[in-house]
Design a protein that fits this description.
CATH superfamily: NCX, central ion-binding region
CATH architecture: Up-down Bundle
Strand order of the largest sheet: 1-4
Number of strands: 4
Mean pLDDT: 82
Order of helices and strands: HHHHEHEHHHHHEHEH
Number of helices: 12
Oligomer: single chain
CATH topology: A middle domain of Talin 1
Low-confidence stretches: 154-158
Radius of gyration: 18 Å
Helix content: over 70%
CATH class: Mainly Alpha
Strand content: under 5%
Length: 308
């Protein structure tokens, strides 16, 4: 038991640091091409910070641990909004762009409903459902390409890494992600079995929070630097990547069972999106007091899982 806890901590650390190196390499590459800050947040940073979720979900699906594969994604999306945006907005009130409120936040709500609908209809995220998710992922990139041409808000970095370091950071980060995901999944499952806790609960809590550490670190740093676009874009982009890309790729590789228990968690994930939209639709700002309510609701959700 103690060994599994130690291995879990090591695995989560490798996931966090691997994602950190991957983000540094990938974002520096993007900055060399003068990509707008919001696009960097929605794509490069979002994909980098979603890398732990992708690694864990794919590894879990290949090992037949469906509770971790699905729970990790839904739990991470809930944590991203309630926990991470909650903490970040308490540090600094977050300004939300008009396009994010009008298009991107509702899109997260739509794909959350789509995931639950596919789970209800097929009883799993099968290859057909996964292709549907990847189709909407492709549409999302078309949208990003369109707004990138219209945006003049370019991300500026005084000093970027050399091409050699960029490649080194990206490859080294990916290697840490792959190894860390295997450690995380194996140790978490062992802990769950010893404590007689379901894979779903482990995926929704410990692993979801652990794999969301890169988002938390990125958003806190962005908030301290007053870069709201990067913080909000990172979270919204990560939630989109988690459902469409991570589950899309995972489902193509290995169909994932979608148990009935996940419908409750899917509803909570949808509720987080609706509340974020309601809070910011008029003011275009996520205030500190709203961040506090996010945290209280998240702790209430975790408590409900523990109580069950």
């Amino acid at each position: 038991m103690l060994l599994s806890i130690i291995l879990l901590i090591i695995g989560l650390t490798l996931l966090s640091k691997g994602a950190d190196f991957f983000i540094d390499g990938a974002s520096n590459l993007a900055l060399k091409f003068k990509i707008p800050a919001i696009i960097v947040g929605l794509t490069v940073v979002a994909m980098g910070t979603s890398a732990p979720e992708a690694s864990v979900s794919i590894a879990s699906a290949l090992k037949g641990i469906n509770g971790v594969a699905i729970g990790n994604i839904i739990g991470s999306n809930i944590a991203n909004i309630f926990l991470i945006l909650g903490v970040t907005s308490i540090i600094c009130a977050l300004n939300i762009q008009k396009n994010t409120i009008k298009y991107e936040i509702p899109f997260v709500g739509f794909i959350t409903i789509l995931l639950c609908a596919l789970g209800s209809f097929f009883g799993e995220v099968n290859r057909l459902g996964a292709i549907v998710l990847l189709f909407f992922f492709a549409l999302f990139f078309v949208y990003l390409f369109k707004i990138s041409k219209e945006s003049n808000n370019f991300a500026v970095e005084e000093k970027t890494l050399s091409l050699f370091k960029i490649v080194l950071f990206v490859l080294g980060g990916l290697a840490a992600l792959v190894y860390g995901s295997n450690l995380t999944v194996n140790s978490a499952v062992d802990i769950a079995q010893r404590l007689h806790v379901s894979d779903r609960i482990i995926g929704l809590t410990i692993i979801a929070i652990g794999t969301s550490l890169p988002e938390l670190i990125t958003c806190v740093v962005a908030a301290l630097k007053k870069q709201s676009d990067l913080a909000v874009g990172n979270i919204i982009g990560s939630n989109i990547f988690n459902i469409l890309f991570v589950l899309g790729i995972t489902g193509v590789i290995e169909p994932i069972e979608f148990s009935a228990d996940f419908f409750f968690d899917g509803f909570i994930a949808l509720f987080t999106v609706i509340l974020l939209f309601v809070y910011t639709a008029k003011s275009k700002v996520l205030a500190k007091w709203q961040g506090v309510t996010f945290l209280l609701l998240y702790f209430g959700y975790i408590a409900s899982l523990i109580y069950k």
